[in-house]
Amino acid sequence: MPKKGELSKTARASLANREAVNHLTDRVCAQCGERIMLTELQPVKVLGAGMKYYHKDHYKIG
Known about the structure:
- The chain has 62 residues and is an alpha+beta fold.
- It contains one helix and four strands.
- It has one helix at residues 9-17, and strands at 24-28, 35-37, 41-46, 50-55.
- Strands 1-2 form a two-stranded antiparallel sheet.
- The longest helix is centred in the first third of the chain and has 9 residues, at 9-17.
């Protein structure tokens, strides 16, 4: 049992193993035509056309 204010052994291990996963995907932005990094990927389902992929800052609603 962890003492008051301390994390458990499992919680400490999960925080230590956390890794920022970011890599260049095979998805191409529908607006600019460049490949998209995983953290910037914004998938959008378009009726009748399937999935489109955008950079998060390129896709605007409305």
